[in-house]
Amino acid sequence: MLTHFFVTGTDSRVGKTIVSRALLQAMAAQGKIVLGYKPIATGSQALADGVRNKDAVTLQQSSSISYPLAKITPFALSDEDIFTSDLPFDIFERMTEGLEFMCQEADTVVIEGCDGWRTLITPQQTYSEWIVQTKMPVVLVVGIQEGCVSQALLAAQSIIADGVTLLGWVANRINPCLAHYPETIAVIEQNIDAPLLGEIPYLPRAESREMAHFLDLSRLAAMA
């Protein structure tokens, strides 16, 4: 059984949180207990009742268990650039500890990353190093817009070259006016050595919608 996997994107703002929500909803519909985990999140706000991150809130609302936001996102950063923030030296160990605890609580944990595959968390250290160390399988989110074909192929090649399993990719239509949408999906599908798990159309307020029906988890199970 697929106990946990990592969701990365071709870039920032391509819909990783939306796709993570759809994956959580789809697995919950199969009767699984699921939890979302975003160990590092940028753009967080300090409020009277604590630090709040909108991505973490979406994952919390999409999970089977009402998990505390501080556990879903232990490193909620206000800065948009991770590597300019003061993260602890043992950041990977602490991220792994949080994941292991969640795996005891849920059948499957969906871990959402930050930005793209090669995101820096220090000037010399990438987020992807944690994924490689833990041998975590990956789902790639492709934001369908101008220039996305090159981004998708480069990201997929980089993930596979790092020696981790690319479970599949999800197309998220973030530009509703993009011409040649079917052709774009087809050419990416022909050139990525992993299955297309689903297509999410452009949806206003997608973070509050039901999206499980846009995904085909049988393809995910075949790769696990």
Automatic annotation (TrEMBL):
Record flagged with keyword Metal-binding: yes
Pfam families to which the protein is assigned, alphabetical: AAA_26
Gene Ontology biological-process annotations: biotin biosynthetic process
UniProt-annotated binding residues for substrate: T42
InterPro entries reported for this sequence: DTB_synth_BioD (IPR004472), P-loop_NTPase (IPR027417)
Entry function: Catalyzes a mechanistically unusual reaction, the ATP-dependent insertion of CO2 between the N7 and N8 nitrogen atoms of 7,8-diaminopelargonic acid (DAPA, also called 7,8-diammoniononanoate) to form a ureido ring.
Quaternary structure and interacting proteins, as annotated: Homodimer.
Homology family: Belongs to the dethiobiotin synthetase family.
Protein name, entry field: ATP-dependent dethiobiotin synthetase BioD
Originating species: Rouxiella badensis
Taxonomy of the source species: Bacteria, Pseudomonadati, Pseudomonadota, Gammaproteobacteria, Enterobacterales
The encoding gene: bioD
